[in-house]
Amino acid sequence: MTVQEALAKARIKLQNSSQAGKPVSSTPSLDASIILSHVSGISRTQLMTHPEKDITVYEDAFLSAIVKRCSGLPVAYITGVKEFWGIDFIVTPAVLIPKPDTEILVERALEILTTKTESTKPTRILDACTGSGCVVISLAVSFKQIDCTAFDISTEALKIARTNAEHILGSKNTIRFLHHDVRNAFPRPLGASSSSYDLIVSNPPYVPSGTALELLLDGRGEPLLALDGGLDGLKLIRPLAEHAKKALAKGGKLLIETGEYNAKAAAAYLKTLGFTDILVHTDLAGQDRVVEGVFQ
Fold first, then answer.
1. CB under 8 Å to 16, separation ≥6 — which residues?
2. Which end of the chain is more exposed for a tag (fewer CB within 10 A), N or C?
3. The CATH number, out of the four listed (1.10.260.40, 2.60.40.2250, 1.10.8.10, 3.60.15.10), of the domain defined by the range 3-79
């Protein structure tokens, strides 16, 4: 089997596959080339420029991976890697796959960090519900003068986050990863006599329960724990905001990723807690995505 034959066969399979009444892929050709590159170890550029190359030795593994994709399993779970903020992160079904919209959270956090008043002390950051660690690690890569703590309730997710930090940051990794529940009082920064962070970021489970279950019908295999935000999607956002208020230094900021269905409700809740300068930032599609508030 040649590269051209393998990709054509896979493309047809993907085009004819659906889960929960929806096509499994909107980019069958791209998915096929990424998976073949992963299975064979041959770059996508080489695959495209040498369509006549014999890849029979990889045929069984490739078609097996395509069957998984046809079942709805995302490409990232098949390859074990997802690019986020220009960085390749290791992902498994234990963590949510990093999404482009979450880069809005990183982008806004970096804007805050770069405009912060000059200080000789590192800016203290907490990443609540860290998952794969993509947010806090991207911040650590992009901004050096920070002291980062991150936590998650999932021990399996923490293993992935720690692995990503070690792989991406190497000897420069100083992120403290903790097993912690967002519904409990937040851990203190290292060396702090009281809980006081300058910036708290979070991409918590915020999808309403019914919607979360519907999303998983397509076979995507993402952890329900990382998606389900209760009946209104705010079950964890409420305690997150409450504990953030107690853990932020005066003038500190809170950034929470939410959904278009509950961003305004989340913003309203921050207001009831006394947060000021509340903003709602939109994502790439113009949907409400990140809620921001200042603790005074």
1. none
2. C
3. 1.10.8.10
